[in-house]
Design brief:
With 313 residues, this protein is α+β, with helices and mostly antiparallel strands. It has two domains: 74 residues, Type Iii Antifreeze Protein Isoform Hplc 12, CATH 3.90.1210; 158 residues, no CATH class. 27% of the residues lie in helices and 21% in strands. The strands form three sheets. Strands 3, 4, 5, 6, 7 and 8 form a six-stranded antiparallel sheet that branches. Strand 9 and strand 10 form a beta hairpin. About 6% of the residues have low confidence. InterPro entries: Pilus_assmbl_Flp-typ_CpaB, RcpC_dom, SAF. It holds the Pfam family SAF. This is Flp pilus assembly protein CpaB.
């Protein structure tokens, strides 16, 4: 009997030891509660950094959705976005835009400034007050093999063929250093340095560049004083656009805005006589051989429409 009791007690102790060992193993695998303590500190630091950055950002009024022209803006059309650097001239409060009427279509996401409510399209905002935008028909040869880009400067060359009304062929620069505003559907920057057309996706930009290579129109910024001359040149002969070097830095110091601009316009117009004479079909008079200049009576120039004749009194 004593041996059986002893064996029973040993079995009970062994079972208790197994239970205690298992329970200790389970408790040792549970994470210590102290390990979770740093989490609140990390969240607090992130919130502090975000709050500090938010204070340095500047509010900008943007459109929530597309707005058609001549539609007064409401508070529901607008939202405030905080940017690290606000665009120059942008509105910073919704009250500054509510009730105002845009003159052109504005797309969603557009940030608003004073020019958003001014009349005139993108092309009108690309030229100065003493310029006019004029479209010129081009082909692969006239348009410099399709390599023209908005912002380039070109000389407009005119070639007059020899015919019955023009006995002497001529080639000359009609207007020098004119700025290219647009090629086909691609336009450059407005006077405030913003893109004239909305930003395109990568695929749309690739398609636009492909269409530019085959464009059939180029829009030029023509000084107002030379507009008639440029228009006449497009009608009487063959044009060529000669691209000027970028080393001239014409875009940085455009001559229509320089102090010596009037002198350059006068210099360009100084070549107008021969151009007008050839374009209107009046050939230079060559006195017959053997005649003395003293015996030649001065002729009277008579202009009828686009015809010039010389008549002796």
């Amino acid at each position: 009997m004593n041996s059986r009791v002893t064996m029973g007690l040993a079995a009970v102790l062994l079972l208790g030891a197994i239970v205690v060992g298992y329970w200790g193993l389970v408790l040792s695998r549970q994470p210590a509660p102290v390990a979770e303590a740093p989490a609140p500190a990390v969240v607090t630091v992130e919130k502090t950094v975000a709050a500090a950055e938010d204070q340095t950002r500047q509010p900008v009024v943007v459109l929530v959705h597309d707005v058609p022209p001549f539609t007064p803006l409401t508070a529901a059309d607008l939202a405030i976005e905080k940017l690290r650097s606000a665009p120059a001239g942008s509105l910073s409060a919704i009250d500054q835009a509510v009730g105002r009427t845009p003159w052109r279509h504005l797309s969603a996401g557009t940030w608003l400034n004073a020019e958003s409510f001014e009349a005139g399209g993108a092309l009108a905002r690309m030229i100065h007050s003493d310029e006019r935008a004029l479209a010129v028909s081009v082909d692969e040869v006239i348009g410099a093999a399709g390599q023209l880009m908005p912002g380039d400067y070109v000389d407009v060359l005119l070639y007059l063929r020899q015919d019955a009304s023009n006995p002497q062929q001529s080639a000359q620069i009609v207007v020098p250093a004119m700025r290219v505003l647009g090629v086909g559907e691609q336009y450059g920057l407005t006077n405030d340095g913003q893109p004239a057309t909305p930003a395109l996706s990568a695929d749309d930009k690739l398609k636009q560049d492909q269409r530019r290579l085959t464009a059939r129109t180029v829009v030029l910024a023509v000084p107002e004083q030379l507009l008639s001359r440029m228009m006449l040149a497009t009608q009487v002969g063959t044009l060529r656009l000669a691209v000027r070097s970028s080393e001239e830095q014409r875009l940085a110091k455009y001559w229509a805005g320089e102090n010596q601009a009037p002198d350059k316009l006068v210099a360009a117009n100084s070549q107008l006589f021969q151009f007008t004479q050839l374009a209107l079909g009046a050939a230079p008079k060559i006195p017959p051989s053997g005649e003395h200049s003293s015996a030649t009576r001065p002729a009277v120039e008579v202009i009828r429409g686009n015809q010039i004749t010389q008549q002796n009194p």
